[in-house]
Design goal:
The complex is a heterodimer. Chain A is an all-beta fold. Chain A contains no helices and eleven strands. In chain A, the strands form two sheets. In chain A, strands 2, 4, 5, 9, 10 and 11 form a six-stranded mixed sheet that branches. In chain B, strands 2, 4, 5, 6, 9, 10 and 11 form a seven-stranded mixed sheet that branches. Chain B has a four-stranded antiparallel sheet with strand order 1-3-8-7, with no helix packed on it. The chains are: A mainly beta, B mainly beta. Chains A and B meet through β4 and β5 of A and β5, β9 and β10 of B.
């Protein structure tokens, strides 16, 4: 059974700080890794995707992948109150592309 | 454009009603998905259509009936639902399986309340 683990939080950071969100996965054949942001009552919105080891940067967001450790993380620099949301980590293998979600980490950014 | 649209936004129905949820995408994606999401839980996969054929049914009760009329449209027909079926129903689409980097894009969801 594939598992994706995330700390449920809440993770509280002050405005302007770096928020670090972590995720581990159990299936070694996992190929693609995604971070979705979900505001309360809204649908998941894709923030980052990463497929190979290392870092991938997009604006204030950096995704980091370490396949040997089965670990993926999301860093949010210069955190803003508007970043307050639940962040879902999701992984998929190279087969039918079904996503396995973690339970999500709630991030709270205080002004 | 990564837009997936869903109608209606909100739906209230009785346990004896029949209703349908609709999902549409014009990105040329060949895989479409239905998810159910309860409060403070991650999305839970219900069905996957790949090239307009049902490829995955995650043991969903028969009161939920999916339909894919064409590659852009996905419906979810609802009949004799229970109050515990109240949830946010999400549609997603992606390029298709075995594409190596298949990214799913979600629609805004339909908030369903069963009385």
């Amino acid at each position: 059974q594939k598992e994706v683990e995330q700390n449920s939080g809440p993770l509280s950071v002050p405005e302007g700080a770096i928020a670090s969100l972590n995720c581990t996965y159990s299936d070694r054949v996992s190929q693609s890794f995604f971070w979705y942001r979900q505001y309360s009552g809204k649908s998941p919105e894709l923030i980052m995707s990463i497929y190979s080891n290392g870092d991938k940067e997009d604006g204030r967001f950096t995704a980091q992948l370490n396949k040997a450790s089965q670990y993926v993380s999301l860093l949010i620099r210069d955190s803003q109150p508007s970043d307050s949301a639940t962040y879902l980590c999701a992984v998929t293998d190279s087969g039918y592309s079904t996503l396995t979600f973690g339970k999500g980490t709630m991030l709270l950014v205080s002004p | 454009d990564t837009e997936v649209t869903q109608t209606p936004k909100h739906l209230v129905m009785g346990m004896t009603n029949k209703k349908s949820l609709k999902c549409e995408q014009h990105m040329g994606h060949r895989a479409m998905y239905w998810y159910k999401q309860k409060a403070k839980k991650p999305p839970e996969l219900m069905f996957v259509y790949s090239y307009e054929k049902l490829s995955i049914n995650e043991s969903v009760p028969s009161r939920f009936s999916p339909e894919c009329p064409n590659s852009s449209l996905l419906n979810l027909h609802l009949h004799a639902l229970q109050p515990e079926d109240s949830a946010l129903y999400l549609c997603a689409s992606s390029q298709g399986p075995l594409t190596g980097t298949d990214t799913q894009y979600f629609g805004p969801g339909t908030r369903l309340t069963v009385l």
